[in-house]
Each structure stands twice: as structure tokens, then as C-alpha cells.
Design brief:
Elements: H1 14-28, H2 34-41, H3 45-52, H4 60-69, H5 74-98, H6 102-121, H7 123-291, H8 295-307, H9 339-344
Helix pairs in contact: 4-5, 7-8
């Protein structure tokens, strides 16, 4: 609630009376504060303060917006504002007239006396004006008499029509009662027809709704069955595809395992062949070095074979002592077999390793 505003000095001004009524409207609306009115109407507090303190005649816009914010009738207050402007102008003129100084009043009275003397100095003109005014008055009197006679005639006719209407009131009341009864009867029949038609429409709607529901349920069951059949078919196809893929995976795994074993066996075989071939070549080189007397180098080759785990790669017993005695060192045949033949065919029980044949001195 807003704080109490200062009382206005009632000097009879229409603006003050207008502002007092506007304050009363504000009190009836709960006496909101200027801040609240600012939020509702959009006007700043200084302008709202001017409005509620009768500082000046307000504009139509602020009156409309503030009255609307106070839940008042804006059109009614705009009409009051129009009357306020006219009344305030008259009030200000009267105030200005009463506030004249004695000198101004004497000057105004002298001007009126001068005008009256001019009229007295010209009596013919005054008489002529009086005659003209009398003639106009007589004409107006004649027109008024004519209007009076016409009004009397109209009044007489109105009384006659009123009498006729008064005499026809019972007849009119009877006709009105009959019309009302007929309307009530017609409304009753229409209500019965409407209820019957409503029942028929409701029954028809129920019947159609039941048929639609049955059709929808049947179609839904068919769609559900088709969906189940398709799901079963897709599931069977999926199971078959998965089984096929699993079988292919098992087959590929078996093939991969077989290939891995074959590759491992082949790798071992190739490694064995390489070791045998390297050993054969090293043994030949040892024989050549022993013949030329390079026993230290032949011993180094033997240690090299031992370091690389190549010496004794064959299943028969071989070593560095196999070549110490020239008479007991076995020699390779003239037509030596290949390393693959040596792996495939097992050596004889009395085989002691290969040796180069003795060349003639």
C-alpha cells in the first residue's frame, strides 16, 4: 500500500475535483504505490505524482493507461477529461475576470457606457432594431403556436393509439400466452425428437465403434501373427547362418592348425637340413685345413660349430675326435647323397660321420 498523499485544497477547480475522483479510484484499487503503477502503466514516478497532485491537465494517454492499470473504465474517464478541459477553461476565465483590478473594471464599465450613449444618440436605429426584434418575436410566437397545435394533434393521436393498445392488451396477452404454450409444446416435441435422435446416433456410434474395434483387433492379430512368423523365419535363417559361419570358422581353424603344424614341421626340417649342410661344408673345410697343417683354424671351426649348436646335428655320433686319426675318420662316398636323403634314410649302425676321401700324395 502506498503512503498517504497530501490533501488537495478544494478551490472549486474542475481539475482538483477530477484529481480527487482519480485518487478515490486509486484507493478502491488497493492504493498501489507509484512504483507499482510505474510497472503497470509504464510512466515514471514524477509524471504520476503530477497526475495525482493536480499539477496540470493530464493527457489522454496517461489517463487511459493509469485508469486501465487501476481496473477502471478508460472510456468513461476520457469523457470526464474532455469535460474537464471545457470546465477548466471557463473556470480560469471566471477567475481571471474576478481578479481584475479596480482600474480595469472602471475602464470596462466606461467602454460599456460609451456604447450605450451611442445607442441613445441614435434612437431611430434603436427603435428600428426593436421593431425588427418584435417582428422576429411575433414570427417565433406564431411558429410556437403552430408547433403547439401540432404537438396537441400528435398527443391526441398518441392517446387514441394508447387507448386502442390498452383495449387490445387482453387480446395480445391471450395471443402471447397461446404463442408461449405453442412454443413450449414445440420445444417439448423437439426435445423428445432430439433425445430419440440422440439415442439413435449414440447406438449407431456404438455399433460402428464395436465393428471398428473388432476389425482393428482382427487386423492386429493378423499383423501380430505375420510378425511372429517373420520373426521365426528370420530367427531360423539367423540360426542357420550362424551355424554355417561357425562351421566355416571351425574348418578354417582346423586348416590353420594343420597349416601351422605343417609349417612348423617344414621349418624344423629346413633347419635340420641347413645345419647338416653347414656341418658338411665345415667338415670339408676342416679336412682341407688339416691337410695343409692349419690345425688351429680347424679347431676354431669346430668351436664355431659348437657355439652355433650345429655340431652333431645328425642322429649319429659326431664330434671333434672323429677326425683326429686319419685312418679311423670315415670318408664321404664318391657319390655322396644329398642332405635330404640323409634325413629321410637313417644311417647305418656302424656309421661314424662323413669324411673327405684321402687324395694321393
Amino acid at each position: 500500500m502506498g503512503r498517504k498523499m497530501k490533501d488537495l485544497e478544494d478551490d472549486g477547480s474542475p481539475l482538483v475535483l477530477f484529481t480527487i475522483k482519480l485518487r478515490k479510484l486509486r484507493e478502491d484499487a488497493g492504493n498501489p504505490t507509484l512504483e507499482q503503477l510505474k510497472a503497470k502503466s509504464g510512466y515514471e514516478q514524477p509524471r504520476l505524482s503530477e497526475l495525482f497532485n493536480a499539477k496540470k491537465i493530464p493527457t489522454e494517454d496517461i489517463v487511459r493507461d493509469v485508469v486501465t492499470a487501476l481496473d477502471g473504465d478508460a472510456d468513461q474517464w476520457l469523457e470526464r477529461l474532455e469535460r474537464l478541459r471545457a470546465d477548466e477553461q471557463k473556470f480560469r476565465a471566471a477567475v481571471d475576470l474576478s481578479a481584475e483590478s479596480p482600474a480595469a473594471q472602471i475602464a470596462r464599465l466606461q467602454e460599456e457606457n460609451k456604447r450605450l450613449r451611442e445607442l441613445l444618440e441614435r434612437p431611430a436605429t434603436v427603435v428600428a432594431q426593436a421593431v425588427t426584434a418584435q417582428e422576429l418575436a411575433n414570427q417565433r410566437i406564431q411558429a410556437a403556436l403552430k408547433l403547439e397545435h401540432r404537438a396537441r394533434d400528435l398527443l391526441s393521436k398518441a392517446q387514441e393509439e394508447y387507448q386502442l393498445l390498452h383495449e387490445r392488451i387482453p387480446e395480445i396477452e391471450t395471443q402471447a400466452a397461446a404463442i408461449v404454450a405453442d412454443g413450449a409444446n414445440t420445444a417439448f416435441h423437439l426435445e423428445l425428437q432430439g433425445r430419440t435422435r440422440h439415442s439413435q446416433i449414440v447406438d449407431e456410434a456404438h455399433r460402428r465403434a464395436g465393428a471398428i474395434m473388432k476389425t482393428a483387433e482382427r487386423e492386429a492379430r493378423d499383423m501380430l501373427q505375420r510378425a511372429e512368423d517373420r520373426a521365426k523365419e528370420h530367427r531360423a535363417n539367423s540360426y542357420a547362418s550362424i551355424n554355417k559361419v561357425l562351421k566355416n570358422v571351425d574348418r578354417l581353424r582346423a586348416e590353420a592348425e594343420q597349416d601351422r603344424h605343417q609349417a612348423s614341421a617344414r621349418c624344423a626340417s629346413l633347419e635340420m637340413r641347413a645345419k647338416i649342410e653347414i656341418e658338411r661344408l665345415v667338415r670339408q673345410a676342416q679336412q682341407q685345413l688339416e691337410r695343409v697343417g692349419s690345425l688351429a683354424q680347424a679347431q676354431d671351426l669346430e668351436l664355431l660349430l659348437l657355439d652355433f649348436n650345429i655340431s652333431g646335428s645328425h642322429t649319429s655320433t659326431r664330434g671333434r675326435h672323429a677326425r683326429r686319426s686319419s685312418s679311423g675318420v670315415p670318408v664321404l662316398p664318391a657319390k655322396a647323397q644329398s642332405a635330404a636323403d640323409l634325413i629321410v634314410q637313417p644311417p647305418r649302425p656302424d656309421w661314424k660321420g662323413w669324411a673327405l676321401p684321402q687324395q694321393g700324395q
